[in-house]
Amino acid sequence: MKTKLLLIASLLLFYKVSQAQVRNEINIPDIPGYVTLKGDFHTHSVFSDGRVWPTIRVFEAWRDGLDVIAITDHINYKLFKEDVYNIDENHSYELAKSTADMLGIILINGVEINYEVPPGHLNVLFIKDANLLMQDDIFKTFEEAKNQGAYIQWNHPGYKQTKPIQWFDILTQLHEKGLLDGIEVYTSKSYTPEALAWAQEKNLTITANSDIHFLVDMYHAEMYQRPVTLVFAKNKSAGSVRESLLAGRTAVFFENTIVGKKEFLLQLFEASVKVLEFPLNTKDSILYVQIKNSSDLDFELELLNPVKGTRIPGEITIWANRTTMIKVKTPIRERKDLSLIKVRFNVKNLIVAPNESLEVELPFPGIEPVGSLK
Questions:
Q1: Looking at residue 123, which CATH number applies to its domain?
Q2: Which residue, 82, 101, 205, 320, is most buried by CB atoms nearer than 10 A?
Q3: Minimal CA–CA distance to 36: which of 68, 62, 64, 71?
Protein backbone atom coordinates (compact mmCIF):
# COMPACT_ATOMS: atom_id res chain seq x y z
CA MET A 1 0.00 0.00 0.00
CA LYS A 2 2.80 2.42 0.93
CA THR A 3 4.55 1.71 -2.35
CA LYS A 4 1.38 2.45 -4.35
CA LEU A 5 0.87 5.78 -2.56
CA LEU A 6 4.47 6.79 -3.22
CA LEU A 7 4.13 5.89 -6.89
CA ILE A 8 0.88 7.87 -7.25
CA ALA A 9 2.41 10.96 -5.58
CA SER A 10 5.48 10.82 -7.81
CA LEU A 11 3.39 10.36 -10.97
CA LEU A 12 1.18 13.33 -10.06
CA LEU A 13 4.16 15.65 -9.70
CA PHE A 14 5.79 14.27 -12.85
CA TYR A 15 2.56 15.00 -14.72
CA LYS A 16 2.53 18.55 -13.40
CA VAL A 17 6.20 19.13 -14.29
CA SER A 18 5.80 17.65 -17.76
CA GLN A 19 2.75 19.83 -18.45
CA ALA A 20 4.07 23.12 -17.00
CA GLN A 21 7.79 23.14 -17.90
CA VAL A 22 8.08 26.62 -16.41
CA ARG A 23 10.88 27.72 -14.10
CA ASN A 24 10.06 30.38 -11.50
CA GLU A 25 13.23 32.46 -11.33
CA ILE A 26 14.24 33.89 -7.94
CA ASN A 27 15.29 37.47 -8.57
CA ILE A 28 17.95 38.28 -5.97
CA PRO A 29 20.89 40.14 -7.56
CA ASP A 30 24.56 39.24 -7.64
CA ILE A 31 26.89 41.23 -5.40
CA PRO A 32 30.35 42.58 -6.33
CA GLY A 33 32.76 39.72 -6.96
CA TYR A 34 30.19 36.93 -6.52
CA VAL A 35 27.19 35.33 -8.14
CA THR A 36 24.17 34.81 -5.89
CA LEU A 37 23.15 31.16 -6.07
CA LYS A 38 19.94 29.85 -4.56
CA GLY A 39 19.98 26.54 -2.73
CA ASP A 40 18.24 24.06 -0.46
CA PHE A 41 20.63 21.85 1.50
CA HIS A 42 18.15 19.71 3.44
CA THR A 43 15.63 17.52 1.58
CA HIS A 44 14.49 13.88 1.73
CA SER A 45 13.43 11.10 -0.62
CA VAL A 46 11.91 7.62 -0.24
CA PHE A 47 15.35 6.31 0.68
CA SER A 48 14.79 7.56 4.22
CA ASP A 49 11.44 9.08 5.22
CA GLY A 50 10.58 11.27 2.24
CA ARG A 51 7.59 10.53 0.01
CA VAL A 52 9.07 11.11 -3.44
CA TRP A 53 11.69 9.60 -5.74
CA PRO A 54 15.05 11.46 -5.74
CA THR A 55 14.61 12.78 -9.28
CA ILE A 56 11.41 14.55 -8.23
CA ARG A 57 13.43 16.66 -5.82
CA VAL A 58 15.56 17.80 -8.74
CA PHE A 59 12.54 18.69 -10.90
CA GLU A 60 11.07 20.68 -7.99
CA ALA A 61 14.36 22.50 -7.51
CA TRP A 62 14.48 23.45 -11.20
CA ARG A 63 10.88 24.63 -11.18
CA ASP A 64 11.38 26.65 -7.97
CA GLY A 65 14.36 28.58 -9.36
CA LEU A 66 17.10 26.87 -7.35
CA ASP A 67 20.67 26.48 -8.55
CA VAL A 68 21.86 23.89 -6.04
CA ILE A 69 20.23 21.17 -3.94
CA ALA A 70 21.24 18.37 -1.59
CA ILE A 71 19.18 15.23 -1.01
CA THR A 72 20.06 14.43 2.59
CA ASP A 73 18.39 11.13 3.43
CA HIS A 74 18.74 9.90 7.01
CA ILE A 75 21.60 7.46 7.18
CA ASN A 76 20.19 5.75 10.28
CA TYR A 77 16.43 6.04 9.82
CA LYS A 78 14.58 4.28 7.01
CA LEU A 79 10.81 4.60 7.07
CA PHE A 80 10.26 2.55 3.89
CA LYS A 81 12.99 -0.05 4.21
CA GLU A 82 10.49 -2.87 3.59
CA ASP A 83 9.36 -1.28 0.33
CA VAL A 84 12.52 0.43 -0.92
CA TYR A 85 15.46 -1.73 0.04
CA ASN A 86 18.94 -0.46 -0.60
CA ILE A 87 22.27 -0.97 1.14
CA ASP A 88 24.18 1.86 -0.58
CA GLU A 89 23.76 5.20 1.19
CA ASN A 90 24.88 7.05 -1.96
CA HIS A 91 22.04 5.62 -4.03
CA SER A 92 19.60 8.55 -3.91
CA TYR A 93 22.37 10.91 -5.05
CA GLU A 94 23.38 8.57 -7.88
CA LEU A 95 19.76 8.19 -9.05
CA ALA A 96 19.26 11.95 -9.25
CA LYS A 97 22.66 13.05 -10.59
CA SER A 98 22.01 12.62 -14.32
CA THR A 99 18.69 14.50 -14.07
CA ALA A 100 20.39 17.32 -12.17
CA ASP A 101 23.13 17.55 -14.80
CA MET A 102 20.52 17.65 -17.56
CA LEU A 103 18.62 20.51 -15.88
CA GLY A 104 21.70 22.49 -14.84
CA ILE A 105 21.15 21.92 -11.13
CA ILE A 106 24.18 21.42 -8.87
CA LEU A 107 23.48 18.25 -6.88
CA ILE A 108 25.38 17.79 -3.63
CA ASN A 109 25.99 14.35 -2.13
CA GLY A 110 24.93 14.44 1.52
CA VAL A 111 23.18 12.66 4.36
CA GLU A 112 21.45 13.52 7.61
CA ILE A 113 22.66 11.71 10.72
CA ASN A 114 20.26 11.32 13.65
CA TYR A 115 21.27 11.39 17.29
CA GLU A 116 19.16 11.66 20.38
CA VAL A 117 19.16 15.16 21.82
CA PRO A 118 21.88 16.15 22.36
CA PRO A 119 23.00 16.93 19.73
CA GLY A 120 20.02 16.07 17.48
CA HIS A 121 20.31 15.90 13.70
CA LEU A 122 23.29 17.00 11.61
CA ASN A 123 23.72 17.27 7.85
CA VAL A 124 26.96 16.23 6.19
CA LEU A 125 27.45 17.63 2.67
CA PHE A 126 30.00 17.23 -0.16
CA ILE A 127 30.90 13.69 0.87
CA LYS A 128 32.39 11.08 -1.43
CA ASP A 129 31.08 7.89 0.20
CA ALA A 130 28.21 8.02 2.69
CA ASN A 131 28.65 4.36 3.59
CA LEU A 132 31.85 5.15 5.50
CA LEU A 133 29.91 7.40 7.90
CA MET A 134 27.97 4.54 9.49
CA GLN A 135 29.99 4.45 12.71
CA ASP A 136 28.90 4.32 16.34
CA ASP A 137 31.30 6.99 17.61
CA ILE A 138 30.07 10.50 16.76
CA PHE A 139 33.59 11.97 16.59
CA LYS A 140 34.89 9.21 14.33
CA THR A 141 31.87 9.70 12.08
CA PHE A 142 32.52 13.39 11.56
CA GLU A 143 36.28 12.96 11.36
CA GLU A 144 35.66 10.58 8.45
CA ALA A 145 33.31 13.16 6.92
CA LYS A 146 35.99 15.84 7.20
CA ASN A 147 38.50 13.49 5.62
CA GLN A 148 36.15 13.42 2.64
CA GLY A 149 36.01 17.24 2.54
CA ALA A 150 32.60 17.63 4.17
CA TYR A 151 30.70 20.67 5.35
CA ILE A 152 28.77 19.81 8.57
CA GLN A 153 25.81 21.69 10.02
CA TRP A 154 23.43 21.40 12.97
CA ASN A 155 19.86 21.03 11.71
CA HIS A 156 16.66 22.57 13.19
CA PRO A 157 18.26 23.48 16.57
CA GLY A 158 14.93 23.49 18.41
CA TYR A 159 14.25 19.83 17.59
CA LYS A 160 12.79 18.01 20.63
CA GLN A 161 13.63 20.99 22.84
CA THR A 162 11.44 23.17 24.99
CA LYS A 163 11.97 26.92 25.22
CA PRO A 164 14.51 28.30 25.77
CA ILE A 165 16.45 26.07 23.42
CA GLN A 166 19.99 25.09 24.40
CA TRP A 167 23.44 24.89 22.93
CA PHE A 168 24.93 21.56 24.05
CA ASP A 169 28.41 20.76 25.34
CA ILE A 170 28.91 18.11 22.66
CA LEU A 171 28.38 20.80 20.00
CA THR A 172 31.14 22.84 21.61
CA GLN A 173 33.41 19.79 21.45
CA LEU A 174 32.58 19.22 17.78
CA HIS A 175 33.11 22.90 17.01
CA GLU A 176 36.47 23.04 18.80
CA LYS A 177 37.64 19.98 16.86
CA GLY A 178 36.68 21.63 13.56
CA LEU A 179 33.77 19.22 13.05
CA LEU A 180 30.92 21.76 12.95
CA ASP A 181 30.73 24.42 10.25
CA GLY A 182 27.16 25.71 10.14
CA ILE A 183 23.69 25.91 11.57
CA GLU A 184 20.15 26.19 10.19
CA VAL A 185 18.48 29.42 11.27
CA TYR A 186 15.31 28.66 9.31
CA THR A 187 13.90 25.18 8.74
CA SER A 188 10.67 24.30 6.98
CA LYS A 189 8.46 27.13 8.33
CA SER A 190 10.33 28.03 11.50
CA TYR A 191 12.84 30.84 12.18
CA THR A 192 15.21 30.37 15.14
CA PRO A 193 16.82 33.69 16.23
CA GLU A 194 18.85 31.85 18.87
CA ALA A 195 20.56 29.98 16.04
CA LEU A 196 21.51 33.29 14.41
CA ALA A 197 23.03 34.48 17.70
CA TRP A 198 25.05 31.26 18.03
CA ALA A 199 26.18 31.54 14.41
CA GLN A 200 27.53 35.04 15.03
CA GLU A 201 29.12 34.11 18.35
CA LYS A 202 30.85 30.99 17.00
CA ASN A 203 31.40 32.08 13.39
CA LEU A 204 29.10 29.42 11.92
CA THR A 205 27.63 29.52 8.43
CA ILE A 206 23.87 30.11 8.33
CA THR A 207 21.40 28.32 6.06
CA ALA A 208 17.65 28.17 5.43
CA ASN A 209 16.26 24.89 4.11
CA SER A 210 12.96 23.17 3.47
CA ASP A 211 13.61 19.81 5.19
CA ILE A 212 10.92 18.72 2.75
CA HIS A 213 9.52 15.18 3.01
CA PHE A 214 6.32 15.45 0.97
CA LEU A 215 5.82 17.26 -2.34
CA VAL A 216 6.95 20.88 -2.10
CA ASP A 217 3.52 21.97 -3.39
CA MET A 218 1.84 20.24 -0.46
CA TYR A 219 3.80 22.31 2.05
CA HIS A 220 4.85 25.57 0.41
CA ALA A 221 2.54 27.65 -1.73
CA GLU A 222 2.64 31.14 -3.26
CA MET A 223 1.44 32.61 0.01
CA TYR A 224 4.24 30.88 1.90
CA GLN A 225 7.49 30.75 -0.03
CA ARG A 226 10.00 27.91 -0.01
CA PRO A 227 12.97 28.89 2.18
CA VAL A 228 16.20 29.48 0.29
CA THR A 229 19.88 29.68 1.21
CA LEU A 230 21.60 32.45 -0.74
CA VAL A 231 25.18 31.43 -1.55
CA PHE A 232 27.64 34.13 -2.65
CA ALA A 233 29.89 32.01 -4.83
CA LYS A 234 32.79 32.76 -7.14
CA ASN A 235 31.08 30.75 -9.88
CA LYS A 236 28.30 28.24 -10.42
CA SER A 237 30.00 24.98 -9.48
CA ALA A 238 29.87 22.46 -6.66
CA GLY A 239 33.41 23.34 -5.64
CA SER A 240 32.60 27.03 -5.39
CA VAL A 241 29.42 26.32 -3.39
CA ARG A 242 31.45 24.24 -0.94
CA GLU A 243 34.09 26.96 -0.62
CA SER A 244 31.39 29.58 -0.01
CA LEU A 245 29.68 27.53 2.71
CA LEU A 246 32.94 26.85 4.51
CA ALA A 247 33.83 30.56 4.23
CA GLY A 248 30.46 31.67 5.62
CA ARG A 249 29.35 33.59 2.51
CA THR A 250 25.62 32.93 2.81
CA ALA A 251 22.36 34.61 3.72
CA VAL A 252 18.88 33.16 4.17
CA PHE A 253 15.70 34.20 2.35
CA PHE A 254 12.25 33.43 3.76
CA GLU A 255 8.86 35.11 4.26
CA ASN A 256 9.93 38.37 2.53
CA THR A 257 12.96 38.53 4.83
CA ILE A 258 16.70 38.10 4.33
CA VAL A 259 19.01 37.36 7.27
CA GLY A 260 22.76 37.61 6.96
CA LYS A 261 25.96 39.51 7.56
CA LYS A 262 25.75 43.29 7.27
CA GLU A 263 28.27 43.51 4.44
CA PHE A 264 26.33 41.10 2.23
CA LEU A 265 22.89 42.57 2.95
CA LEU A 266 24.08 46.11 2.24
CA GLN A 267 25.51 44.97 -1.11
CA LEU A 268 22.24 43.16 -1.94
CA PHE A 269 20.22 46.29 -1.10
CA GLU A 270 22.47 48.56 -3.15
CA ALA A 271 22.33 46.15 -6.09
CA SER A 272 18.52 46.01 -5.87
CA VAL A 273 17.49 49.63 -5.27
CA LYS A 274 18.03 52.71 -7.41
CA VAL A 275 16.66 56.19 -6.72
CA LEU A 276 15.52 57.82 -9.96
CA GLU A 277 15.06 61.52 -10.75
CA PHE A 278 12.72 63.81 -8.80
CA PRO A 279 9.92 65.43 -10.85
CA LEU A 280 9.24 68.78 -9.13
CA ASN A 281 5.83 70.48 -8.86
CA THR A 282 7.02 74.04 -8.24
CA LYS A 283 3.53 75.36 -7.49
CA ASP A 284 2.90 73.07 -4.54
CA SER A 285 6.54 72.35 -3.67
CA ILE A 286 5.92 68.63 -4.09
CA LEU A 287 8.59 66.18 -5.15
CA TYR A 288 7.76 62.70 -6.39
CA VAL A 289 10.72 60.51 -5.51
CA GLN A 290 10.83 57.37 -7.66
CA ILE A 291 12.65 54.30 -6.32
CA LYS A 292 13.16 51.26 -8.52
CA ASN A 293 13.47 47.82 -6.90
CA SER A 294 14.82 45.10 -9.19
CA SER A 295 14.60 42.25 -6.65
CA ASP A 296 11.90 39.85 -5.39
CA LEU A 297 11.93 41.39 -1.91
CA ASP A 298 9.51 44.13 -0.78
CA PHE A 299 11.87 46.35 1.23
CA GLU A 300 10.16 47.72 4.35
CA LEU A 301 11.80 51.04 5.29
CA GLU A 302 11.48 53.04 8.49
CA LEU A 303 12.72 56.67 8.57
CA LEU A 304 15.46 57.21 11.16
CA ASN A 305 16.43 60.88 10.72
CA PRO A 306 13.81 63.56 9.89
CA VAL A 307 14.88 66.24 7.42
CA LYS A 308 14.39 69.91 8.34
CA GLY A 309 11.68 71.54 6.27
CA THR A 310 10.88 68.36 4.36
CA ARG A 311 8.14 65.84 4.98
CA ILE A 312 9.15 62.25 4.22
CA PRO A 313 6.81 59.38 5.13
CA GLY A 314 7.87 57.60 8.30
CA GLU A 315 7.33 54.20 6.73
CA ILE A 316 7.89 53.27 3.09
CA THR A 317 7.54 49.98 1.21
CA ILE A 318 9.69 49.68 -1.90
CA TRP A 319 7.74 47.06 -3.81
CA ALA A 320 9.48 44.12 -5.46
CA ASN A 321 10.20 44.35 -9.20
CA ARG A 322 8.45 47.74 -9.44
CA THR A 323 9.12 51.46 -9.23
CA THR A 324 7.59 53.03 -6.12
CA MET A 325 6.72 56.74 -6.08
CA ILE A 326 7.09 58.63 -2.77
CA LYS A 327 5.40 61.99 -2.31
CA VAL A 328 7.68 64.44 -0.50
CA LYS A 329 6.71 67.94 0.67
CA THR A 330 9.61 70.40 0.45
CA PRO A 331 10.10 74.20 0.63
CA ILE A 332 12.17 74.05 -2.58
CA ARG A 333 10.47 75.91 -5.44
CA GLU A 334 13.13 75.85 -8.15
CA ARG A 335 15.05 72.86 -9.43
CA LYS A 336 18.28 74.88 -9.25
CA ASP A 337 17.78 75.04 -5.48
CA LEU A 338 17.36 71.26 -5.18
CA SER A 339 19.95 69.65 -2.95
CA LEU A 340 20.18 65.97 -2.06
CA ILE A 341 20.67 64.75 1.47
CA LYS A 342 21.50 61.22 2.48
CA VAL A 343 18.53 60.19 4.58
CA ARG A 344 18.95 57.20 6.85
CA PHE A 345 16.42 54.37 6.93
CA ASN A 346 16.07 51.11 8.81
CA VAL A 347 15.26 48.18 6.46
CA LYS A 348 13.08 46.17 8.82
CA ASN A 349 13.16 42.92 6.82
CA LEU A 350 16.93 42.79 6.30
CA ILE A 351 18.10 41.22 9.57
CA VAL A 352 21.78 41.44 10.55
CA ALA A 353 21.46 40.20 14.17
CA PRO A 354 18.67 39.21 16.57
CA ASN A 355 16.55 42.34 17.07
CA GLU A 356 18.72 44.34 14.66
CA SER A 357 18.08 45.22 11.04
CA LEU A 358 20.15 46.92 8.36
CA GLU A 359 20.57 50.70 8.21
CA VAL A 360 20.89 52.28 4.77
CA GLU A 361 21.15 55.76 3.31
CA LEU A 362 19.18 57.04 0.31
CA PRO A 363 19.42 60.43 -1.44
CA PHE A 364 16.32 62.53 -0.76
CA PRO A 365 15.60 66.22 -1.40
CA GLY A 366 15.88 68.64 1.52
CA ILE A 367 17.66 71.57 3.13
CA GLU A 368 19.58 69.95 5.96
CA PRO A 369 19.23 66.86 8.11
CA VAL A 370 18.19 66.91 11.74
CA GLY A 371 21.00 65.27 13.73
CA SER A 372 24.20 63.74 12.45
CA LEU A 373 24.41 61.07 9.80
CA LYS A 374 26.60 58.01 10.05
A1: 3.20.20.140
A2: 205
A3: 68
Give the relative orientation of helices 54-63 and 91-103 as an angle to the nearest 10 degrees.
Answer: 30
Measuring CA to CA, which residue among 172, 167, 168, 129 is closest to residue 149? 129
Could you tell me if 180 and 290 lie in one domain? no
Which of 214, 238, 260 represents a domain boundary (last residue)?
260
Which residues, including other chains, have CB under 8 Å from residue 200's CB and lie 6 or more apart? Answer: 353
State phi, psi for 33 to the nearest 5 degrees.
90, -10
Q: Look at residue 201 in the predicted model and tell me its pLDDT.
A: 98
- CA–CA dist 216, 214 (Å, integer): 6
Asked if 150 and 40 sit in the same domain, the reply is yes
Residues 270 and 166: their CA atoms lie apart, in Å, by 36
SS3 label, residue 216: helix
The answer to whether the CB of 231 falls within 8 A of the CB of 244 is yes
Listed in sequence order, the DSSP H helices in the chain are 2-20, 54-63, 91-103, 138-147, 169-176, 193-202, 216-219, 238-247, 262-272
- SS3 category, 71: strand
For residue 216, give the nearest of 106, 357, 97, 60 by alpha carbon: 60
- Where the chain has pLDDT below 70, the residues are 1-20, 221-224, 278-284, 332-339, 366-374
Residue 369's pLDDT is: 44
Q: Which of the listed residues 260, 285, 314 is the one where a domain comes to its end?
A: 260
Residues 142 and 43 in one domain: yes
State the CATH number of the domain containing residue 309: 2.60.40
Whether residue 268 is contained in a domain is answered as no
CA distance 71 to 47: 10
